[in-house]
């Protein structure tokens, strides 16, 4: 038997029981505890000097081996607008989005899925770089890093 849930929300968390009658053995039952987690997002701030290399980890507490099995993407945001910089599918090379003239030649996806920016510019100050890892269509983990750029 299987229980199929649609439009899953945190409110569906709880204990579920499946029971059925069998002849001649009587009633059988199994219980399961379901925990529905909300979309997770972590926020960080990174400080860097102008013209230096900035490396932003995708998810701070996750190893690159764990990330390599899932699609991920890096975005940059400012004033409520987000622009995709790079996407990475499992077992495929990274795909760089060339729409951004500001980052076209300056971004690189490191082997550990961190975003490398070189050289940093004063225009990077205040920008928010986000990494989205899609574990499942309904479970995306996000990490956002606000960059602070300082002069020499």
Provide an overview of this structure.
The protein has one helix at residues 64-67, and strands at residues 14-22, 26-34, 40-49, 54-56, 72-78, 81-88, 95-96, 107-109, 115-117, 128-136, 139-150. Helix content is 3%, strand content 49%. The protein is mostly beta strands. The strands form three sheets. It has a six-stranded mixed β-sheet with strand order 3-11-10-5-6-7, with no helix packed on it. The chain has a three-stranded antiparallel β-sheet with strand order 4-9-8, with no helix packed on it. It is built from one helix and eleven strands; from the N terminus they run E-E-E-E-H-E-E-E-E-E-E-E.
Record the SSE blueprint.
Layout: E1 14-22, E2 26-34, E3 40-49, E4 54-56, H1 64-67, E5 72-78, E6 81-88, E7 95-96, E8 107-109, E9 115-117, E10 128-136, E11 139-150
Parallel strand pairs: 3-11
Antiparallel strand pairs: 1-2, 4-9, 5-6, 5-10, 6-7, 8-9, 10-11
Number of helices: 1
Helix content: under 10%
Largest sheet: 6 strands, mixed
The percent range for strand residues is over 45%
Largest sheet, order of strands side by side?
Answer: 3-11-10-5-6-7
Q: Write down the overall mean pLDDT.
A: 87
Structural class: mainly beta
Radius of gyration, whole Å: 22 Å
* Contiguous runs where pLDDT drops below 50 for at least 5 residues: none
Shape: elongated
- Following the backbone from N to C, one meets helices and strands in this order, namely EEEEHEEEEEEE
Strands, count: 11
Q: What is the first-to-last residue Cα distance?
A: 65 Å
């Amino acid at each position: 038997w299987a229980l199929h849930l649609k439009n899953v929300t945190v409110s569906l968390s709880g204990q579920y029981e499946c029971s059925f009658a069998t002849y001649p053995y009587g009633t059988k039952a199994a219980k399961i505890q379901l925990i529905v987690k909300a979309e997770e997002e972590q926020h960080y701030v990174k400080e860097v000097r102008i013209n230096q290399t900035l490396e932003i980890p995708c998810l701070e507490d996750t190893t690159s081996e764990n990330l390599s099995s899932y699609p991920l993407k890096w975005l940059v945001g400012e004033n409520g607008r987000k622009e995709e910089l790079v996407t990475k599918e499992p077992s495929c090379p990274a795909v760089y989005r060339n729409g951004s003239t500001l980052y076209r030649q300056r971004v690189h996806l490191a082997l550990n899925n961190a975003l490398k920016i070189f050289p940093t510019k004063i225009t990077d100050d205040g920008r928010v770089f986000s990494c989205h890892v899609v574990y499942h269509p309904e479970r995306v983990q996000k990490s956002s890093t606000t960059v602070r750029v300082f002069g020499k």
